[in-house]
Design a protein that fits this description.
CATH class of the largest domain in chain B: Alpha Beta
Strand content of chain A: 5-15%
Oligomer: heterodimer
Strand content of chain B: 15-25%
Helix content of chain A: 40-55%
Low-confidence stretches of chain B: none
CATH architecture of the largest domain in chain B: Roll
Number of helices of chain A: 19
Bound molecules: flavin mononucleotide, iron/sulfur cluster, FE2/S2 (inorganic) cluster
Low-confidence stretches of chain A: 437-446
Distance between the termini of chain A: 51 Å
Largest sheet of chain B: 5 strands, mixed
Largest sheet of chain A: 5 strands, mixed
Radius of gyration of chain B: 20 Å
Helix content of chain B: 10-25%
Structural class of chain A: alpha/beta
Mean pLDDT of chain A: 94
Strand order of the largest sheet of chain B: 2-1-5-3-4
Shape of chain A: globular
Number of helices of chain B: 7
Mean pLDDT of chain B: 90
């Protein structure tokens, strides 16, 4: 079990510069700035096979090589630390525990991209993490890792930490850019892509916290070494934030390619379903990805072992697969109500839609209302088909992927748990009682 | 020049032209409906999603079809691109979906709406909408608001096309008008009752595709189809002074800019023919204006049934 990012997370004081440096911190900056050209760093990242850890899994090296480099125009690297997807809390853990790892990654990556001003855009609800990061940035400046002429290499870098206003949509890269520019966080139309015209119209790369942190071991040990871990096109290690009815939820760094079975039940990981209950369903990659019923969690539809990789989790497409997404691994035991959970997700997306494009603005609100009725014993059979139809009309027709992210979970829940939706229509009163929390909450406050 | 085929009609256009503008160059019913794009307001488009089309061949060089439906207002043509609009069942289905989305929260208060008869949402609903609704929830409501002393905002009717926001941003010197809140709760606002006092703010009324922004000097005075639109001009030092006066008998009921078949202001002397607030709101006396002649309303709304042209004139200015 190799850990590349969280290797030192339990070392006391690792959040301070001294301890971090003593554990070998900032080696990648020394190596890159002293011995490598920016192209060399890019080459290592390409060789590593690293794929974006923000959700889409786009190869980082390729993304970097698309960055336009017009003469005399500044370029920027933005770190996406807006982490707001329900079920996802891996970036927070990393930044809280080892803030210098992210800063080190930012320096090395900015060097590779030729960016002299970089930003970390952090979720507005993570204010205490902002403090941790700002402290670490100040330490990095004090010790000469940031500022002018770093290590005498002639490379300058200023790094700013910027808090968001608390909107999920600002995690979408172009909305993040708008927000950073001080505007309303509405996603932009693409093209142009940020690689050509991003922050203030300049070429920009947006990467997830974990992607940027992974550049550190890649530069230290070489891209080939990193690529040795994993299966196929899923290389390296991945942070998974596991939550729900697990015996031991938490943030784990896994090697790509371990089986889902091992991750849920293994002693090194989640140690099975809490309270000895049975697995009912799993959302393996954050609230935006399709839910899997228990019989498709550890095995694919064709009976093969399901692995923790981009490919294996997607095996079977939308019919019987899901996605690795952002690594938010949510597990449901036999007592959980899928309709209630679907409603809960729908409520999130309706609340977070930016409201520019009509299918998402109207569709997410509509789905939320229908699901709310179904969940609260006010639904009809035709509502189930209506939901399936609404999400077909949203999917693919919106400006940014939030529309799809809102549609897929509903579609998948109906596909795999239709009986449960029907049960809610046929057993209106019981449906309400069976849902933990809600009723008692209501009566308690009444 | 690049060659593009839209619904089996071929046209050559300048590189960089959008599919929608290429279709407009062909004209006729293959032109996708556009509720948010407004050619005279850079930056508009992409939001309403009514202009979706299917690109069955990306270009000569890369003939692969585009997997998603594309917004024609913001997708530029490639040489050899083949586009389907009216001839694509997928487009029709999804456009009907978009129209349904635009209507679920719409109050459908056409009988008392000043825009009725010249409303793009009415036209769109007529062509692509369903006969009933599947929406059983409560519609969202907002109280009507004043935007300055001449403009009324009925947020209930708004489709959030953002056109008026661009008018505020591009035609007036100070933007005190934008969008508040997110998702379903998003609303046009002046932050908030901050009156928009600007010579060109009235153009918001003309760009609004629905009855969300209406002219308070005209509100509830008449149905538009009872009025007689006439091209008229005046000497104005703020704008071109070229407008349309809408008359009932000898009285001017309202003044608007001159708009084309797509509801966009026409160009006057090479520039977008926006009119100023003096012309729009204050010049309501016939003596203010030089009448040039009857105006043909070049779209298939109720008013274009034009009872104000003699049959002979009507034939000459055949409605496209
Ligand atoms: C609605 C929405 C929310 C997103 N939120 C995040 C987020 O919180 N963090 C993140 O890293 N990426 C998020 N993304 C993905 C980003 O747009 C972008 O793909 C990512 O930051 C790229 O980084 P990567 O290539 O390193 O994964 C979001 C995307 C969408 C559509
Ligand atoms: S899909 Fe939703 S969040 Fe994305 S641009 Fe459209 S309205 Fe905004
Ligand atoms: S006109 Fe193209 S999206 Fe509105």
């Amino acid at each position: 079990m190799r850990r590349l990012l969280l290797e030192h997370d339990q070392v006391p004081g690792i959040e301070t510069y001294e301890v971090y440096r003593k554990q070998g911190g900032y080696r990648s900056v020394e190596k890159a700035l002293k011995k490598m050209s920016p192209e060399d760093v890019l080459e290592e990242v390409k060789k590593s096979g690293l794929r974006g850890r923000g959700g889409a899994g786009f190869p980082t090296g390729m993304k970097w090589s698309f960055l336009a480099k017009p003469e005399g125009v500044p370029r920027h690297l933005l770190c996406n630390a807006d982490e707001s997807e329900p079920g996802t809390f891996k970036d927070r853990y990393l930044m809280e525990k080892i803030p210098h790892l992210l800063i080190e990654g930012m320096i090395t990556s900015s060097y590779a991209l030729g960016a002299n001003v970089s930003y970390i855009y952090i979720r507005g609800e993570y204010m205490w993490v902002l403090d941790i990061l700002e402290k670490a940035v100040a330490e990095a400046y004090d010790n000469g890792w940031l500022g002018k002429n770093i290590l005498g290499s002639g490379f300058d870098l200023d790094l700013y930490v910027c808090p968001g206003g608390g909107a999920y949509i600002c995690g979408e890269e172009t909305a993040l850019i708008e927000s950073l520019e001080g505007k309303r966080g509405n996603p932009r139309m693409k093209p142009p892509f940020p690689a050509v015209a991003g922050l203030w119209g300049r070429p920009t790369v947006v990467n997830n916290v974990e992607s940027i942190a992974a550049v550190v071991p890649i530069v230290n040990d070489g891209g080939d070494e990193y690529a040795k871990i994993g299966v196929g096109r899923s290389t390296g290690t991945k942070l998974i934030s596991a939550c729900g009815n697990l015996e031991r939820p938490g943030v784990y760094e896994i090697e790509m390619g371990i089986t889902v079975e091992e991750f849920i039940y293994g002693d090194d990981y989640c140690r099975g379903i809490a309270k000895g209950k049975k697995l009912k369903a799993c959302v393996p990659g954050g609230s935006s990805v399709p839910i899997l019923p228990h019989y498709l969690v550890t095995k694919t539809a064709t009976g093969e072992d399901r692995l923790m990789t981009y490919e294996s989790l997607a095996e079977g497409g939308f019919e019987s697969g899901s996605m690795l997404g952002s690594g938010g691994f949510i597990v449901f035991d036999e007592d959980q109500c899928i309709v209630r959970n679907t409603w809960n997700f729908a409520r999130f997306y309706a609340h977070e839609s930016c409201g520019q494009c009509s299918p998402c603005r109207e569709g997410t609100g509509w789905m939320e209302k229908v699901l709310n009725r179904l969940e609260h014993g006010q639904g009809n059979m035709r509502d189930i088909d209506l939901l399936a139809d609404i999400n077909k009309k949203i999917e693919g027709n919106t400006i940014c992927p939030l529309g799809d992210a809102a549609a897929w979970p509903v579609a998948a829940a109906i596909r795999h748990f239709r009986d449960e939706f029907e049960w809610h229509v046929n057993h209106r009163e019981e449906a309400q009682k069976r849902n933990y929390g809600l009723i008692s909450e209501k009566t308690a406050s009444a | 020049m690049v060659k593009v085929t839209i619904d089996d009609q071929v046209i050559e256009v300048e590189p960089g032209t959008t599919i929608l503008n290429a279709a407009r160059q062909i004209g006729g019913d293959i032109v996708p409906p556009a509720m948010c794009y407004y050619s005279k307001l850079p930056g508009t488009g992409g939001k309403c999603r009514t202009c979706l089309v299917e690109v069955v061949q990306g270009s000569e060089k890369d003939p692969r079809p585009m997997p998603k439906l594309m917004v024609s207002c913001s997708t530029t043509v490639q040489d050899g691109m083949v586009v389907r609009n009216k001839t694509s069942e997928r487009v029709q289905k999804n456009r009907a979906g978009v129209v349904e989305f635009l209507l679920i929260n719409h109050p459908l208060d056409c009988p008392i709406c000043d825009q009725a008869g010249e409303c793009h949402l009415q036209d769109l609903g007529f062509e692509n909408g369903g006969a009933g609704t599947r929406y059983e929830e409560e519609r969202r409501t907002f109280a009507p608001r004043d935007i300055g002393n001449k403009i009324k905002l009925h947020m209930n009717r708004c489709i959030l096309c953002y056109r008026c926001v661009h008018v505020a941003k591009q035609l007036t010197d100070q933007r005190v008008h934008g969008v508040l809140n997110r998702g379903e709760h998003a609303e046009i606002s002046t932050y908030i009752e901050n009156a928009i006092e600007n010579d060109f703010s009235g153009n918001m009324i003309d760009v609004c595709p629905v009855g969300a922004l209406t002219d308070k000097t005209f509100r509830f005075k008449s149905r538009v189809w009872f009025l007689k639109p006439l091209n008229a001009s005046c000497s104005c030092n703020k704008c071109s002074g070229k407008a349309v006066v809408w008359m009932f008998g000898d009285e001017i009921y309202r003044v608007t800019a001159r708009k084309d078949a797509y509801g966009e202001v026409e160009e006057q002397d090479g520039k977008a023919g926006w009119i100023c607030n003096d012309c729009r709101f204050d010049k309501k006396d016939v003596h203010n204006w030089q009448i040039e002649g009857p105006r043909v309303i070049n779209r298939h709304s109720v008013i274009s049934q034009g009872h104000y042209l003699s049959p002979r004139q009507h034939d000459q200015k055949k409605i496209k």
